[in-house]
Amino acid sequence: MDIPKWASVYLDEKGFLAVESAVQQAEAKTSGELVPVIVRRSSTIGHVPIILILFFSLLFFVLEGPYWQHEWFDLPLWMFVVGDLLILAGLVRLLAPLPFVERLLTSKYDQMSQVEQRAINEFYNHNIRDTKGATGILIFVSLMEHQAVVLGDHAIAEKLSTEDWQGVVDRLIRGIKEKDMADGFCQAIAMSGELLKTHFPIQNDDINELQNGLIIKD
Q: Which of 71, 133, 163, 172 sits in a 20 to 30 Å window from 149, CA-based?
């Protein structure tokens, strides 16, 4: 498995295989089909460089403006402008790609709504809605936003509420913060298996309908 650089901070190849094993163990107890997915981000970030440019431009103006009026300050104005533009370009290039900056400059509401929408998209993209007994379940993590979502097909939603899955979500978020998504996913998957086996025990004719491995997407 070729793990992207952005994901390798949270997960190595050994951890990737551990997550696949955790899915197999959980599905040995239940007819539910667990699909773990991790993405780099769900939110759009095109606004981040613009906000940084505006912020630093204002900061430079406030800090340097008084010096422009002093004749004794022998640097011409154009040198100030060129120097500021170079510094500004460097700062934006350095800061804009950082996840904590993206998170800081994206509203909580936008993060939450876009993570939920991305989770819904992944639910359909990976055919989780197509299982025979409507027992597919998505275990979804969006790293930049530090958020997780659990989505179950309608058979699962009829038996288990959002509150039932909160412990699973909390464990995934802790995995993000501890930069150990292997352990976060493994424990969350084990918890999911325990929740599912009561209402959806394994059947004699059960078959594996969806892939067990962790799906990593940008």
A: 133
pTM: 0.87
How many Å apart are CA 167 and CA 119, to the nearest integer?
Answer: 18
DSSP category for residue 214: P
- Determine contact, residues 105/48, Cβ cutoff 8 Å: yes
**183/27 Cα distance (integer angstroms):** 18
Statement to judge: residues 22 and 112 lie in one domain: yes
Please give the radius of gyration of the chain, using alpha carbons only, rounded to the nearest integer. 23
User: Which residue do the tokens 């979502």 mark?
Assistant: 149
* CATH code, 14: 3.10.310.50
**114-139 pLDDT per residue, tens:** 999 999 999 999 999 988 889 999 99
Counting the structural domains of the chain, the total is: 2
146-186 residue pLDDT tens: 999 999 999 999 999 888 999 999 999 999 999 999 999 99
The token pair that represents 13 in the structure block: 């190849």
